Amino acid sequence: MTNNQKNETVQDETADAPEPKTTPLTDLHSDMGAKLVEFAGYQMPVQFPLGVLKEHLATREDAGLFDVSHMGQAWLTGANAALALEALVPGELQGLEPGQQRYTQLLNDEGGILDDLMVTRSDGIFGPEGLFLVVNAACKEQDFAHIAAHMPDDVTLEPIEDRALIAFQGPKAASLLAGLVPDIDTMPFMSMRHGIISGVSCLISRSGYTGEDGYEISLPEGDATSITSQLLTLSGVEAVGLGARDSLRLEAGLCLYGHDIDTTTSPIEAGLLWSIGKRRRIEGGFPGAERVQREIAEGPSRRRVGLRPDGRAPAREGTKILDMDGNPIGVITSGGFSPTLGGPIAMGYVETGFHTAGTKIQLFLRGKTLPAEICKMPFVPQRYYRG
Amino acid sequence: MSTTKYSVEHEWVALDGDIATVGITKFAQEQLGDVVFVELPEVGAQVAQGGDAGVVESVKAASEVYSPLTGEVVEINEDLETAPELVNSDPDGEGWFFKIRVEDMSEYEDLMSADDYAKFCKEQD
Question: How far is Cα B70 from Cα B106, in angstroms, rounded to an integer?
Answer without folding.
Answer: 11
